Protein: Antitoxin
Organism: Thioalkalivibrio denitrificans
Amino acid sequence: MSKVRVDEDIRPLSEFRAGVASFVKHVHETRRPMVLTQRGRGVAVLMDVHEFELMQKRLEILEDIYRAEEQLAAGEGVPHREARARVLKGLGR
């Protein structure tokens, strides 16, 4: 996902209400999220569906890594040699 460009991608909610279609088109074309503000504070983020799905996949992977690190820290890991032997055995080698 591309980074937010402050000069283009932070817009007031009132502008969004007035031109929803153009905002959706902008987000789709640039693949950048748009931050919507109300009274000068961020209240919502509008983003392309494809970019959102990619972000969800990345988060799932990061959560798996985090969980694995916690398991290793708790001593629940399996040494590489043993894990390799299990995988190879499962493959019938």
